Amino acid sequence: MAIGKNKQAPPLGELDKAIAALSEKWDGVINTVPASEYVTCDDLKRPTGLTSLDVALGGGWQGGRLVIISGMSGLGKDYLLNQTIRNVQENYGENAGIVIASFGADHDPTFANLCGVTFPRSEVDIAKMEEENGAPLDPEYKAALRKSVGKIVIPQPGQDPRYLKNPAGFLAEYVIDAVRQGRFQLVVLNEVGSHVTRDLAEKVMSETDAKKSATRAIADTAKFFDHFMAKYCLAMKQSGREFLNETTLMFLSQIRMHFSHNGAWSESVGGEHLRHVKSIEVKLTPGDAVEASGEIVGKKVKWKIVKGKHGIGDGAEGSYKFIDGKGVDLDEDTIHTAIRRSVVSVAAPYFSWGGIRKKGLSAFSEAVIADGRIGELRKAVFDSLGVKFRVR
What we know:
By secondary structure, this protein is an alpha/beta fold. The protein contains 13 helices and 16 strands. Helix content is 40%, strand content 23%.
């Protein structure tokens, strides 16, 4: 006999009674919410501006979730972060709120400006520029340096002696509190693999065996982030009682090398054990050098979604060219993505889209850019996928 055969579900009235009983018993502790009143922000996206990656992400990083950019040094994690910040500023204007905390080096305002972020410079920085220049800066340039869009907050150590005993712990608590506020679109924790606590430093420095030292550091890192993520999840739940918390928490995580049990070296990502908490992880790996006129002018960076939840599939991958001093040609990426998605029609040697038909890719690209239609083409790419999301 099949399991459940001839058994009937309780009458609808009994189901209503069961729900009412749950609501009454747990009132004030846990709210029994019907699906028709359940609200999420999974359709809220924070774009990177890199069309190929945003397509794979379903529009961008998810709101209200933890996302991670991982990779070894020098592959553009900060670049993708700055592009995300730039888009948050463009989408929210004066209501943009961003927190950038770091276990290691602080965020670079000069590089942020080069990436298109409106990052106001301090009067100390401006004074140094004038001193190095040997003359006052142009008033319009100084005004541009002081310009701000929304609020960017950079947590710095205070005078409390307790901070010196556990700097990473206090900074982590600050980040969690910022998430709990629910008033920032983006909260960032950079240099995740570089966190240092007093106990961890003492244990590692007292270890004479390099293999044991590496193993101890990894174990302590896992323990540290276990505690962090438990508090993060609680913070999101607590704020969710009062309002829908749309804060995107972003980790920039460095891939480190460590000994495995058999003595071989292998890769380790800070917080790798958090696979069941993070919503998205994009891993960056190095590609070939980019050359022009016989000289290396940049590098190719490969990206891959190694973890995706809420409709974002694992395994999507792509690449972009990062040119030294210039960054990524976002327009080129949009056009190539449109071609791959057949948004742009190709009948060699002609390329056509939106009333533009040109012989050769260069001529077509120049026409789209000159007409100021890159944004329109980017939108057409997402429309072709049937992807519906809020870009904020």
